[in-house]
Amino acid sequence: MPKMIRKGDLPTKTCPVCNRPFAWRRKWERDWDRVVYCSDRCRRSGKPSTNAAS
Q1: Does the predicted model carry a pTM greater than 0.85?
Q2: Dist. CA 14–CA 1, nearest whole Å
Q3: Which of 1, 7, 16, 33 is least surrounded by Cβ atoms within 10 Å, i.e. has the fewest?
Q4: Known Pfam families for this protein (predicted)?
Q5: What is the 3-state secondary structure (H, E, C) of 6-44?
Q6: How far is the C-alpha of 54 from the C-alpha of 34, rounded, in Å?
Q7: Whose CA is closest to 42, among 23, 15, 22, 21?
Q8: How many CB atoms are located within 10 Å of the residue 16 CB?
Q9: Which residues are paired to 14 by β-bridges?
């Protein structure tokens, strides 16, 4: 039986568009190094936000 990994122990990254953290997902298992954006919406936007605090 595989060892269970807690959600808090998964690697995280910060989206350059919305500046929010997002966690590793099983569907990104093979290409986690190439994942940059947290969602399709951020990927389509593509430009990093300069005023995320507003």
Answers
A1: no
A2: 32
A3: 1
A4: DUF2256
A5: CHHHCCEEECCCCCCEEECCHHHCCCHHHCCCCCHHHHH
A6: 29
A7: 15
A8: 15
A9: 21
